[in-house]
Amino acid sequence: MSERLPPLTALRAFDAAARHMSFAKAAEELNVTPAALSFQIKSLEDHLGHPVFRRLNRAVELTEAGRALAPGAADGFEALSAAWRAARRASDTSVINVTAGPAFTARWLAPRLFIFARAHPEIELRFTASLRILDLERDEIDVAIRFGYGGDEEGMAFPLIEEWLTPMMTPELAAEYPAPEDLHRALLLHQDDIAFLDPPADWPEWFRLAGLGPPPASGPRFSQSDHAVDAALSGAGVALGRISLASREIADGRLVAPFSLALKTEAHYRLICSKGSENRPQVRDFIDWVKAEAETMQNLSEGRTLVAVGSSGPG
Question: Which DSSP symbol is given to 91?
Answer without folding.
Answer: H
